Amino acid sequence: MRRLTALTLCAALFAGCTKDEPKSAAPSVAEAKKALAGAPAPLARIHRQSNELLGGGAQALEKRIASLKGYPIVVNKWGSWCGPCRREFPAFQGQAIEQGKKVAFLGVNGADPGADARAFLKKYPVAFPSYVDPDEKLASVIKAAGPYPQTVFYDRAGEITRVKAGPYRTEDELAADVERYAR
């Protein structure tokens, strides 16, 4: 009986690990450009770097965050290897377009080989860049050390208002937190 229970548990866990990934919520490039046209200059600079993996380490990320004072910021720490990150990514695709004229979205891609991260972004393109964090040092800068994914909200003054550990299950859940914490 114990063996049957153990086999059943293993089968259930394996089935949960092999579920299909979510469908991309990204609009076409033309639709995204149209939706984000007319964004204020600091946000437009982010949109021009859509889907890029940026280097520069902590100094580059801190400089970018400082340059966005006056705008709320949402930073998502993700990895292509992270199942919960993959499942929540469509919510970030949608909200970055919907809120992209008034809220800055950025990513921090951690512990991820560059080729894997680029392949993931090709499948799930976003209207914002991600800073590469191979040694997970940027996670400390944004107060998001620890498990993946994490989302960090900044107010208009550049102060962190919330760090959420764990995935967003729906885009509506993310939208509610953007409304609540990124103001």
Radius of gyration: 17 Å
Number of strands: 6
How many separate structural domains? Answer: 1
Average per-residue pLDDT, rounded, comes to 87
Annotated CATH homologous superfamily: Glutaredoxin
The proportion of strand residues reads 15-25%
Topology, please?
Layout: H1 2-17, H2 29-36, H3 41-48, E1 53-54, H4 57-67, E2 73-78, H5 83-98, E3 104-110, H6 114-123, E4 130-133, H7 138-141, E5 150-154, E6 160-165, H8 171-181
Helix pairs in contact: 5-8
Describe this structure in words.
Residues 1-19 have low confidence and may be disordered. The radius of gyration is 17 Å and the shape is globular. With 183 residues, it is α/β, with parallel strands linked by helices. The longest helix is centred in the N-terminal third of the chain and has 16 residues, at 2-17. It has helices at 2-17, 29-36, 41-48, 57-67, 83-98, 114-123, 138-141, 171-181, and strands at 53-54, 73-78, 104-110, 130-133, 150-154, 160-165. Strands 1-4-3-2-5-6 form a six-stranded mixed β-sheet, with helices on both faces. It has one domain (21-181): Glutaredoxin, CATH 3.40.30.
